[in-house]
């Protein structure tokens, strides 16, 4: 896996690593598939996590651990969308806005998770070189993937919030390709948000507070 950590090329004075480029291209493809509500978004996300896990394992334990969590959430998403197929007329996952209870739960989980992970990264500096923003991006990504797995339009809002920190964080830490890809993510997120928003209105149906998914 050392070859994946080597430099692929330079762009605007920034070193582009093979691992950074390949992992993020898979992530970009997964986001595009998520926009189309294709269940293949989850295998692609899992594969991206697997590649980066192999790159980081035995070298950057914290980064490898984060990719393991991402892979676990991808498996959960696959399972959720398999259960939910057929809910909409076109055979794909039906999308909806979260209830206020769900929004509050996700916001609380994001806040508590960010603090907990940041404190862990701070206590063990080898896990992260920038604990608080790194924890924010990591936890925000997990929350966004969870919302995507549940077919919530808020998934796209969560990605926008991740992008606000992810872009400058990646450039600052030398992951230029990640930074460029996050900019593209932003454009895809806006298109995806519009599409899911409109679909949620077309397929609107009441969701009771506390009702099972």
UniProtKB/TrEMBL annotation:
The keyword Cell membrane applies. Belongs to the nicotinamide ribonucleoside (NR) uptake permease (TC 4.B.1) family. It comes from the Bacteria. The keyword Cell membrane applies. It is a multi-pass membrane protein. Pfam families: NMN_transporter. It is found in: Cell membrane. GO terms for molecular function: nicotinamide riboside transmembrane transporter activity. PANTHER family: NICOTINAMIDE RIBOSIDE TRANSPORTER PNUC (PTHR36122). It comes from Streptomyces zinciresistens K42. Keywords: Cell membrane, Membrane, Transmembrane, Transmembrane helix, Transport. This is Integral membrane protein. One of its GO terms (cellular component) is plasma membrane. The chain crosses the membrane at residues 16-34, 46-79, 104-124, 174-193.
């Amino acid at each position: 896996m050392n070859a994946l950590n080597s430099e692929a090329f330079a762009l605007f004075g920034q070193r582009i690593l093979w691992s950074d480029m390949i992992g993020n291209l898979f992530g970009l493809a997964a986001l595009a598939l998520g926009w189309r509500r294709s269940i293949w978004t989850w295998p692609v996300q899992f594969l991206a996590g697997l590649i980066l896990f192999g790159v980081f394992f035995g070298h950057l334990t914290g980064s490898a651990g984060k990719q393991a969590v991402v892979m676990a959430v991808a498996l959960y998403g696959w399972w959720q969308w398999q259960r939910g197929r057929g809910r909409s007329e076109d055979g794909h996952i039906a999308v909806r806005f979260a209830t206020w209870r769900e929004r509050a739960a996700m916001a609380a989980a994001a806040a508590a998770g960010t603090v907990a992970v940041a404190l862990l990264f701070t206590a063990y500096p080898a896990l992260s070189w920038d604990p608080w923003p790194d924890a924010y991006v990591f936890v925000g990504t997990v929350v966004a993937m969870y919302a995507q797995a549940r077919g919530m339009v808020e998934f796209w809002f969560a990605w926008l919030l991740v992008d606000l920190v992810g872009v400058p964080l990646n450039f600052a830490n030398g992951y230029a390709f990640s930074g460029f890809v996050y900019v593209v993510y932003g454009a895809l997120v806006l298109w995806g948000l519009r599409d899911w928003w409109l679909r949620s209105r077309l397929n609107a149906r009441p969701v009771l507070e506390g009702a099972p998914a």
